[in-house]
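hey can u check if this looks right to u? its 452 residues, i copy pasted from the old doc so theres a chance i mangled smth
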Amino acid sequence: MHIHILGICGTFMGGLALLARQLGHQVSGSDQHVYPPMSTQLQEQGIELIEGYDPSQLDIKPDLVVIGNAMSRGNPCVEHVLDHGLRYCSGPQWLREHLLQDRWVLAVAGTHGKTSTASILAWILEANGLSPGFLIGGIPQNFGVSARLGSTPFFVVEADEYDSAFFDKRSKFVHYQPRTLVLNNLEFDHADIFDDLAAIERQFHHLMRTIPSTGRVIAPLDEPAIERVLQMGCWSELERSGESAQWSWSKIKADSSEFEVYFEGKSQGIVNWSLIGEHNLKNAIMAIAAARHVGILPQLAIESLARFTSPKRRLELLYQDNELSLYDDFAHHPSAIETTLKGLKAQDPEQKIVVVLEARSNSMRMGAHAPLLGPSLQLADQVLLFEGTQSSDSLQAIAEQYNNIALFADIESIVQSCSTAVSGKTVVVVMSNGGFSGIHKQLEQRLKARSS
């Protein structure tokens, strides 16, 4: 079968392309403004990439067109598919019908930490001989690819609450029907498709309705929105994490790079790994709990985390010398920004933190996170906030309100200012959920030249 994917460079659709190829299908696809690491991954796998949405790409008459949720009516390819009666479906629908049937699906849902937690969980299963399949919205460095079929019934999926397609406004995760569900956290996001937090909670409730009674839900105690979801109905086994819950922890190091794990009050072992931040500690706890549901002892899961490497773009170290560290972080929400900065500050309270931030997500561009964005950045000594060519009143207001935040309209000015800002022991964190106009390489080159 020849499958053509519209929006193929999205993290979900790119992973789906790999899975379709591994199943033996011919796969091609198109997208706009493609950027690594997904574009690189697809090219390495021999998948044809077409830039743009000229409908002539569909003259080949593929057997099926899989339409990404970034596509909308008016897109030339979408209109061609509809006008010519080509067979089409959404990505989540294809995944369910062609791959997830008869698999033990372990799904990771929540506003933050999905990619990291799913990567941790997949690695725990891999390190303990279960060879899982997975589809993750990033590239786990322990595997080098964002998706694979696996050789056992177990399949780990990053369960996104974003809508499935222009013709299916249900959240993607409703299609997955997991047996093991991790609910990391829940805050308002995706302001372009959800009116308020209650609307997102309703979608999570729909997800809860798909879990079998013999399935298991793992959820934290300290998330009010998760509590409201559970109160709407939970028909499955339920395990909780938190200070007074079944799964708990105690920090050994302030930056959470070493901590002890407890289940029902009994120590299960000590995690000593390369990640920092309490958010990653909580991600690990959830993954250990989920792995236990498929039979992996917590002690074995804990041992495997010593060999876990953070996914690409999740506080990924790009460059380091005696005084400077340059990181790339996939930031899209104020809470995620704040927890990352807390981890860096706990790692070394004396180091200077410079944040280079592109407020790129739809919610940020719409100003939905404006009240929280400024406060979330206050652990940074200096913030270089990219406005781009489109002026934003909410970003300008933030820059005027906080002394450590400066607004920039072009990349070169940011690179120059960042180079000037680096003095003494400094951490530079580039935060964006997009390609950020290739600023990572430009910064790396400028900072290397500065130190040589």
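The chain has three domains: 2-91, 102-307, 316-451.
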